[in-house]
Amino acid sequence: xxxxxxxxxxxxxxxxxxxxxxxxxxxxxxxxxxxxxxxxxxxxxxxxxxxxxxxxxxxxxxxxxxxxxxxxxxxxxxxxxxxxxxxxxxxxxxxxxxxxxxxxxxxxxxxxxxxxxxxxxxxxxxxxxxxxxxxxxxxxxxxxxxxxxxxxxxxxx
Length: 157
Known about the structure:
It is a single chain. With 157 residues, this protein is an alpha/beta fold. It has a domain of 66 residues: CATH 3.100.10.10. 19% of the residues lie in helices and 14% in strands. The protein is built from 5 helices and 6 strands; from the N terminus they run αβαβαβββαβα. The protein has a 3-stranded parallel beta sheet with strand order 1-3-5. A 3-stranded parallel beta sheet has the order 2-4-6. It is elongated.
């Protein structure tokens, strides 16, 4: 049985740390491989990515573009064919689909799309449904319930 204390890196996969600044005989003495003077030769002298030496950086020269809508609704989508493969009886809603891993946990809304076929009746609760998906679910004997945004905010559904 392998235990954590027995783990070792593969032979040849790691190298020893280079010891610099240990005198002239080592070949890495005096300036310790840092060159002569300057910001990068000092201790703690690191510069952030994108720094251009005081020149106006590129990310500030370029104009801002576009718009991010803070009220955008991101839908988790699921096809009718995926619903047909479910081994779940009863009402299928976003919480059931999140638990089964078919919809991402960060999605707040669910939309059912019409790709695939379904034969068994299912009751589906979603925030949006395409026309073809609604037709396929209802011809199989199922029901489609649309969850309103107000009900979701009030945690009724």
